[in-house]
């Protein structure tokens, strides 16, 4: 059994450890779960991930209760034998993040024997997790370019505090190709996705978010032509049914080798225009650099890098990236950072000589 210490980590450590346990067919014991959080131990969304992974993998688990600070998880050979797939339903409770649950499940595509469907009820656009449109319109398309077969169907949005969103993730058996994301390709254009709960439609929140983003975005091309600019490839404004009022905006930047995404959430008392500006500020910082993916995606791709190999250019090394690298190392998967003046390239230690474009 692999002994892991979560005293300096949060929920991402737990989720990735469970995923790697299945993929590497190694039982794990995690002590000090979410030890660096004000309220350590399993909260609703972490318990939901643990229970769902156990059900999908028919794993043996101990410590599956709210507040638990030590858990054990034994996949019982599920990764080595292949997962049977099937259909599952999970109620995370309150506004626990649906997208974080799905993040833990996606890599299982590489060991599935048949399609997997998971319908989750909880928060779709909540703090400290990727907005739903980032997950389904940025992450899934990027991974699809490298062989992942998955889709996401939205029945209802779930904003804080009531949650109650309902989303179905469908994943098919997939063979991943090496991540060819070392260099950013030629910029192609921008897509904007702005969503409001139906209760905010009379205030034009979705439209105002989008306009705020467009006002702030730096769409000038780097070719010296003052009249040239990045084209708007898509702009969507949606009013969605939800148990709680709320809003979200996601900006996606397309380039020759991939996509990058940036999101912001509405808050009580925060002007809708400011939500769009916040997302645009993050997008502008990306445009000023040379990374192939955004900062958050850089961390989320490390498990897929471990599975498929390749090279990924990230804007910078965050605490989450370092934490993920240490976790991979605990499973015997070493990564290498190659720093340049413009970005950082991440690869597997035994992949440094590959010539992935």
TrEMBL record:
Catalytic activity: a 3'-end 3'-phospho-ribonucleotide-RNA + ATP = a 3'-end 2',3'-cyclophospho-ribonucleotide-RNA + AMP + diphosphate
RNA 3'-terminal phosphate cyclase insert domain location: 183-287
PANTHER family found in the cross-reference section: RNA 3' TERMINAL PHOSPHATE CYCLASE, RNA 3'-TERMINAL PHOSPHATE CYCLASE
GO BP, sorted A to Z: RNA processing
Domain RNA 3'-terminal phosphate cyclase: 9-329
Keywords: ATP-binding, Cytoplasm, Ligase, Nucleotide-binding
Active-site residue list: 320
Gene Ontology molecular function: any one: RNA-3'-phosphate cyclase activity
The keyword Transcription is annotated on this UniProt entry: no
Record function comment: Catalyzes the conversion of 3'-phosphate to a 2',3'-cyclic phosphodiester at the end of RNA. The mechanism of action of the enzyme occurs in 3 steps: (A) adenylation of the enzyme by ATP; (B) transfer of adenylate to an RNA-N3'P to produce RNA-N3'PP5'A; (C) and attack of the adjacent 2'-hydroxyl on the 3'-phosphorus in the diester linkage to produce the cyclic end product. The biological role of this enzyme is unknown but it is likely to function in some aspects of cellular RNA processing.
Pfam families: RTC, RTC_insert
Similarity comment: Belongs to the RNA 3'-terminal cyclase family. Type 1 subfamily.
Positions that bind ATP: 103, 296-300
UniProt GO cellular component terms: cytoplasm
Enzyme class: ligase
Chief place of localization: cytoplasm
Name of the encoding gene: rtcA
InterPro entries the UniProt entry points to: RNA3'-term_phos_cycl_insert, RNA3'_phos_cyclase_dom, RNA3'_phos_cyclase_dom_sf, RNA3'_term_phos_cyc, RNA3'_term_phos_cyc_type_1, RNA3'_term_phos_cycl-like_CS, RNA3'P_cycl/enolpyr_Trfase_a/b, RPTC_insert
Protein name: RNA 3'-terminal phosphate cyclase
Entry's EC annotation: 6.5.1.4
Organism: Natronococcus occultus SP4
Intracellular or extracellular location(s): Cytoplasm
């Amino acid at each position: 059994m692999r002994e892991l210490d979560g005293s300096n980590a949060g929920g991402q450590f737990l989720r990735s450890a469970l995923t790697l346990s299945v993929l590497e067919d190694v039982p794990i014991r995690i002590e000090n779960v979410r030890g660096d959080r004000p309220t350590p131990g399993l909260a609703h969304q972490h318990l939901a991930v643990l229970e769902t992974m156990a059900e999908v993998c028919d794993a043996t688990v101990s410590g599956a209760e709210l507040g638990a600070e030590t858990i054990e998880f034994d996949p019982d050979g599920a990764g080595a034998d292949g997962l049977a797939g099937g259909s599952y339903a999970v109620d995370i409770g309150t506004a626990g993040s649906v997208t974080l649950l799905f993040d833990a499940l996606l890599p299982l595509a590489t060991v599935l024997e048949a399609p997997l469907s998971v319908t989750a009820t909880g928060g779709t656009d909540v703090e400290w997790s990727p907005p739903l449109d980032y997950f389904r319109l940025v992450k899934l398309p990027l991974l699809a370019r490298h062989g992942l077969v998955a889709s996401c169907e939205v029945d209802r949005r779930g904003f804080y505090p009531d949650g109650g969103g309902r989303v179905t993730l469908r994943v098919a058996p997939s063979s991943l190709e090496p991540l060819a994301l070392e260099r950013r390709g030629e910029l192609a254009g921008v897509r904007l996705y702005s969503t409001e709960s139906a209760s905010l439609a009379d205030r034009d929140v979705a439209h105002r978010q989008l306009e705020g983003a467009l006002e702030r975005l730096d769409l000038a091309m780097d070719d010296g032509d003052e009249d040239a600019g990045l084209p708007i490839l898509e702009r969507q404004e949606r009013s969605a049914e939800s148990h709680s009022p709320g809003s979200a905006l996601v900006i996606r930047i397309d380039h020759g080798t991939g996509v990058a995404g940036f999101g912001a959430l509405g808050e009580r008392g925060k002007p809708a225009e400011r939500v769009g500006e916040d997302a645009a500020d993050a997008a502008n910082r990306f445009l000023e650099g040379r990374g192939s993916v955004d900062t958050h995606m850089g961390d989320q791709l490390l498990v897929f890098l471990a599975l498929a190999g390749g090279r990924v250019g990230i804007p910078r090394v965050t605490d989450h990236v370092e934490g993920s690298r240490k976790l991979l190392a605990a499973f015997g998967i070493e990564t290498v950072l190659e720093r340049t003046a413009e970005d950082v390239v991440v690869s597997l230690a035994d992949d440094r000589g590959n010539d992935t474009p």
